[in-house]
Design brief:
alpha/beta; FAD/NAD(P)-binding domain; 6 helices; binds flavin-adenine dinucleotide; globular; 2 domains; five-stranded parallel beta sheet; about 325 residues; seven-stranded mixed beta sheet
């Protein structure tokens, strides 16, 4: 698998990650943005963003984010769709692991937002990594010819469900409501020959043994009793409000509320690692705050990589 070196690797392509990339690229630093999915971050799902300075109050979050991404790319940022599942922050070069390849940089920025959730289904935490997964692109190939369940109705669930149809013999798709009729992607997933859609259905329990997941219990809203389903994989895609930090392990310090600890320059407790945007669990989660964090980190990174004592302002041309 390929290994790519850069000056700066940014994990997360929301307003924090994109504004950071805009500044580091303009500072002539080779910058890679690794983004799981441009449609599932907090700004991407914001229907209308009326309070971002300088843009039309009619603009959707998705459109504003596309502008930010295009601007970063126009200055040279290398934007890639990839889900980061691990990092190693030891030493001068930080390593970032994705199913698409390994990335190395002297400056690592984490900007994955705060739409994460703690494992909440019975059995979810117990079988995490042994049948329970949050990444079909990472783990889908392990389920060739096997039955799996996909839980959730958001865009990520739909896309990851499609990925699983290439491997699994049957994909059971559980949603608590009916997907919208004008949602072309959801409708396309339901028409796949190896997809069985369970509408208005809740996941109640994930069961297993020493080898991993063996099945789930589910319950349809209209029925009194739970039903057993034999599956070997369960892919959960539900949003919450917890900083997304699972890929960091315990390699940086966290606050009690789960946010990453940073200083005034957005630097974490590990040299060469910065954290920006909602991953800090700031009291005021706003797009403009996330973008501001990205700018501060980028200027600090420029100083760090170029061993300058002061911050070089970006407005001297
Ligand atoms: C419903 C809603 C409405 C909102 N309305 C407003 C508003 O009107 N005005 C306003 O200013 N703010 C609003 N906000 C808040 C604002 O959207 C956030 O503060 C802002 O988007 C945070 O930016 P971020 O870059 O930190 O995270 P996000 O925007 O969440 O972006 C995080 C990115 O990281 C990616 N990612 C996650 N995990 C991984 C991984 N493992 N590997 C690679 N990539 C990963 C995601 O795909 C995503 O693209 C709203 C938020 C929500 C949820």
């Amino acid at each position: 698998m390929e290994t790519i070196e850069a000056d700066v690797v940014i994990v997360g392509g929301g307003p924090a990650g994109c504004s950071c990339a805009l500044y580091t690229s303009r500072a002539d630093l080779k910058t890679v943005i690794l983004d799981k999915n441009p449609d599932v971050g907090a700004l991407a799902i914001t229907h209308q963003i009326a309070n971002y300075p300088g843009v039309s109050s009619e603009m959707s979050g998705e459109a504003l984010l596309a502008l930010m991404r295009e601007q970063a790319v126009s200055f040279g940022s290398d934007y890639r769709r990839a889900q980061v599942f691990g990092v190693d922050v030891n030493g001068e070069w930080k390593t970032v692991y994705t199913p698409e390849g390994t990335f190395k940089a002297r400056a690592l920025v984490v900007a994955t937002g705060a739409l994460g959730r703690p494992a909440s289904f019975k059995g979810e935490a117990e079988y995490l990594g042994r049948g329970v997964s949050y990444c079909a692109t990472c783990d889908g190939a392990f389920y060739k010819g096997r039955e799996v369940a996909v839980v959730g109705a958001n865009k990520e669930a739909v896309e990851e469900g499609q990925v699983l149809t290439k491997f699994a013999s049957r994909v059971h798709w559980l949603t608590t409501s009916d997907p919208k009729e004008d949602d072309a992607h959801a409708q396309a997933l339901m028409t796949q020959p190896n997809v069985q859609h369970w509408s208005r259905t809740r996941l109640m329990l994930i069961e297993g043994d020493d080898a991993g997941v063996t099945g789930i219990k589910l319950k349809n809203r209209t029925q009194e009793t739970e039903q057993d389903l034999a599956v070997e994989g369960v892919f959960v895609y539900m949003s919450g409000s917890k900083p997304i930090t699972d890929f960091l392990g315990d390699q940086v310090a966290f606050k009690e509320d789960g946010g990453v600890v940073v200083d005034d320059f957005m630097a974490t407790t590990v040299d060469g690692v910065w954290a920006i945007g909602d991953i800090r669990n700031t009291p005021f989660k706003q797009a403009v705050v996330a973008a501001s964090d990205g700018c501060i980190a980028a200027m600090a990174i420029d100083r760090f990589l170029n061993s300058r004592k002061g911050i070089r302002v970006d407005w001297v041309h």
